[in-house]
Structures are given as structure tokens and as C-alpha cells.
Task: structure prediction
Amino acid sequence: MPSWNIHTAHAEHLLAQGDATALGIQDVNAFLLGNLLPDVYVGYMVPDVSHKIPYAETHYADPNFVPEPRYDEFFDRFATPGKDGKVSDLILGSWAHLVADHDYNLRANTFFQEHGIQPCTETRVKKQGDFDLFGRTLNISLIPHITDEVLRQCAIYPPYTLDPEDMRRTEAAMARIVADNASRHVYGAPAYQMLGADFFSRTFSEVTAHIRTGLLAYAAGDTNWGKAR
Result:
């Protein structure tokens, strides 16, 4: 499962490729927070949240060995424009998170099948170790700040209730991750156990392109921008 440094790196790459407004993003802080939201109430990344929600509910995924979140179901249920004709940046970011989780896990499952790798604890440990290692090769700096506008969007987030204090805890957790990524940054060729540098390089590019294509379609007024293509 992609870690928050990977999700944030995708967001930073998207924002670096052009003006946020070209992607339909109105508030960058809210978009960055949205990129983290599906994980917040699972309870691992922010362990002191006020309540927990099962992963299958926040990610629209079946409890498979490596689950593939259904981002198109999330889109169908929640990507409804408001009175201003816009989808909230929290929804855009959450959709981007689910796309990344789906695509990385789909490609990991394909890798396992192609190489005859069986689902077991050892496979899970190696997979997550490789994901964690890849995350530390990335340069990230952006932290979602919990502004009044972000809290306004949180108050009307349709999937589930977002507690303001939990959002501030999320900001603090992300700040720690950015600092940790800098202090334990991996330079050079990482010693992956299973997936390999080519897997991550190819998948990172494909995921970024997938999210970017969807957001550009949204900005252009395509009502099916978040569906599988």
C-alpha cells in the first residue's frame, strides 16, 4: 500500500506540472489533505484519532490479500458538484488517493501472478518494505495546513464525519513524515527485496498520468472524469 510520502509525492508532481487551476483544484491545502483522508480513520497513520472506520469502508475495497480500491465507486457516490458547480478539493484529493492505491496494488498483484509469488506473510512484509523504501527515495515538502477553508470543506465532506482535531492531528502526522523523509532519505539505487526499481519507476509515472488525466477532464467539464478508463 502506498505510504503518505508516496501519495504526497504524486500530489507534488501534479502541482509542479502546471497551475493547480488547470487541474480544477481551487484550494491546494484541501487537495493535499484529501490525498491523505482515506487512511486517517483506519488508525495506523494517525493512531490517536477520535474514532476508527474499517479500511474496506474508507477505501471501497474487498478484503483481498492486496486489495484494489474501487475509486470509480467513490466517484459515483461522492463526486457531485456543489451549488458553485465544483467538486470539493477534499473529494478530488480522496479520489486521487484511491486511484493511487488501486493502481499500485493492481500492478503488485499482476507482478505476483507473473512471477508465481504466493500470498503469504513473507510476501506482504517484503511488499510493504519495498513500498516504504521507495517512499524514502522521494523528495517531498508539502504539508496540508488546516485553514478555515479546509475546515469548511471538512464540515460538508460526504463520506463520513471529519473531526477538526483529527484533521489537525493529521497535519502534525504529515509534518513528521516530511521531516522523517528528509532525515532518512535514500540516495542511489535502493536494495529492494522483491518489486524492483523498474516497477516503482513505471508505476509512479503511470499513476501520476492517470490522476492528471482525470483532473484535466474534470477541469474541462467532463462529467465522467473519475471513472475507470
About this structure: The radius of gyration is 17 Å. The chain has a mean pLDDT of 95. DSSP finds ten helices and no strands in the chain. Residues 137 and 188 are 8 Å apart (CA to CA).
